[in-house]
Structures are given as C-alpha cells and as structure tokens.
Amino acid sequence: MPSEIETPQFRSDVRAELIRGQAQDSDVIWAARVSTSGEKSLDALDADAARSEGLIRYLMRDRHGTPFEHNSMTFYVQAPIFVFREFQRHRIGWSYNEESGRYRELAPVFYVPDESRPLVQVGKTGHYIFEPGTVEQHEVVARATRRAVSAAYEAYREMLDVGIAREVARGVLPVATYSSMYATCNARSLMSFLSLRVQSADARFPSSPQREIQLVAEQMEAQFARLMPITHKAFIDAGRVAP
C-alpha cells in the first residue's frame, strides 16, 4: 500500500556550521619559519602570532601561500543542490562528502527565494546587475516554485512506493532540493573560495557570486575570522586576494 506523502517544506535560508577547527594564526608562523630556521622552527610552535603579524602580512602581500595550508576547518553545510554544484567547482584544497540520494530517501525540503532575493538580471552575460523585482514577480516565483517542487516530490514518492530504486527515483527531484555535506579546507583554499564567492567593496578583483552561495560563504568567513583574525585581516588588507 502506498505510504502517505510527506508535506513539502519550504525554506529560504542556508547553513554553514564550523564543526571542527584546527586553525590559528600561529600555524602560519611556524610553517613559514622552517624555510629559514630548519629544525629551530619547532621553537616557534607556540609563537605569539600578534608579535609576528608583520610576517603574516608579508606572506599574504607577496603571495607566499603554502604556510597558510597547515591548518584545517570542517564545515557542515545545508543548502539547495544548485549551491553545492557551484561549491564543487572549488577542488584544490577541498574535500567534500555529501548526503546521497542513492542510499537514503531524500526529505521534501525545497528552496524558495524570499523577498530579499533580487530577481531580475539586467545587462549582458559577464556584465550585468540584479534588480529586486516587483511584488508580483516575487509572488510568481514563490507560487511556481512551490507547485513545481511539490509535483516533483509526488512523482518521486510514487516511484518509491512501487519499489523503484532511490537512485532512479531521485532523477525527478529539482536542484532546489536541500542537501547537506561536510566540506573541509585549509585557510589558503578558503581564501580562494571567499575571493570569488563574496562580493565586497574591499576586493581588488570584484566578483559577482550568486546570492545563495554568498550567504554560505559569509557564514564561513565569519568563522575563519574568529579562528585566524590576523590572517583574515591581512587577507582583507591585501584586497581579498588569496596568497
């Protein structure tokens, strides 16, 4: 007998939670000093990073990047699937494990843009801006999205109920479906990500990220700034150019 179809849930938020952070400014210092001090660099393992701020700023400014790799941050991310497809364009220095629609039944949780999401693209590809959109346009987006994802989930459940494998049934689900993953990176790879996925007036090379991935990136940057405040400030002062 077919199971009762679960009522779809609609969200407009994303989540990026730091679950493990082995990263501090002093990690950059001892990694850098091995190049000139050899085994004596071990004496700097408990270095006072504030006293060595000039070294961090020098490394950032002159783009000596490898000292920024000797640390690790793991984030738990919840977002619609289309955000993850953008995320996974970032491959160097990143590791990902995402929940699988082959091995578990996916929950009917879907992304619907809220009123703060700009809707109208103005200009040519590569040179455009987004404008807010009218009340009517927001109503159309919300109504059409809810209708489409609800129909897709009903089709998904219909296939599961007659014994179709999850990996086949999932093909009808839209990229607005929420997924979750663990994403692990080091400070250097995170700064490369932030330079592209956060729009900022401080950036030497302006970027125009999609809003939803920027919301994720902003949460990750806040945690990075808390763990490695000197490194983060050097990144900002360098025009948000990753070393």
Automatic annotation (TrEMBL):
PANTHER family: FLAVIN-DEPENDENT THYMIDYLATE SYNTHASE. HAMAP family: ThyX (MF_01408). The lineage of its organism: Bacteria, Bacillati, Actinomycetota, Actinomycetes, Micrococcales. Belongs to the thymidylate synthase ThyX family. Homotetramer. Gene3D superfamilies: 3.30.1360.170. Pfam families: Thy1 (PF02511). Signal peptide: none annotated. This is Flavin-dependent thymidylate synthase. The keyword Transferase applies. GO terms for molecular function: flavin adenine dinucleotide binding; NADPH binding; thymidylate synthase (FAD) activity; thymidylate synthase activity. Its cofactor is FAD. Its EC number is 2.1.1.148. PROSITE patterns: THYX (PS51331).
